[in-house]
Amino acid sequence: MPPIYIAYLNRLDIEELRITDDEILSAIEASLASQGRGETVIEPRMHLEPGVANGHFNVLRGAIREPIDSAGVKVVGDFVDNYKLGFPSELAILALFDPRTGAPKAILDASGITDMRTGAVTAIGAKHLARKNSKVLGHIGARGTAYWNVRLLNHLFDFDEIRVHSRREESRNAFADGLSRDLGKKVVATADWRSCVEGADIVVEASRLSEPTPLLKTSWIKPGAFVVPYGTMSAIELSLTDIMAKLVVDDWGQCKGGKFGSLRAHVEAGKLSEATLHAELGQIVAGLKPGRQNDAETNLLWHRGLSLSDIALGHAMLEKSKRLGIGQQLRFA
């Protein structure tokens, strides 16, 4: 048997790549278009709950044909109390494989990939479903994927006003201060949900609740806004979907099943179904279904997280690492 080598990128390697906002968005948008055209395979995520801590593992699986030509599996832990130990709430590994032989090709630290690709899907959803002149962002949540949501949305919209909120005062203040430095503009930490989201053009709900609690009120949503609720536990009212012109998801197969997710109750109540679903985001990106068609639409995107996004961004990082000579080669066989 010929030797098999695995490319290995740890967290320090990925930081050294200094992947740009445009590189992230380009990789993810291309993968969404591939999904929309039916050039991918995606399996609904699976969950593993060890039962020894406040958290669980997500296992995501998929494959993308040319030009990426990779199958991938990502295992990501989601443990909400990790901050008490100084760890991020999400730690992950992405493994990439040759889809023709099954030979492993790469192992990457995927904690940063998870955050980046989630923020990119949020931003690309806004690109197609929010008003082009959106100038006020209200973001709930300050950990995990929150930073890249705000950063990549601002990259596309250059907001006049950014508001953020999270349960712990020290967390939301530190988040706002860090974003202000990185974005070069004022970011306001609000003391409550209402002052964060009411009247905002784009609303992102990425809270980390221990159980479903309808903290985001439908009456606070501005007509014509774009709303992205994707917390593991729902923070929205059942009535939220009633005001939407378009309901969009990243992958209906994984959104319609499982025990977790912001719109799980809406699926169970029949408010989000194959009949009420407008499109998967990939269909819109590929030009097969329309995105926003007028400024009056109030639209919603629910994304559970795509293995395809992990694979696409992991592939982009591998290609850049080859050009820059970053990372290691491990002998597998």
Automatic annotation (TrEMBL):
It comes from the Bacteria. Pfam families: OCD_Mu_crystall. Transmembrane segments: none annotated. InterPro entries: NAD(P)-bd_dom_sf, ODC_Mu_crystall, ODC_N. Coiled coil: none annotated. One of its GO terms (cellular component) is cytoplasm. Belongs to the ornithine cyclodeaminase/mu-crystallin family. This is Ornithine cyclodeaminase. It comes from Bradyrhizobium lablabi.
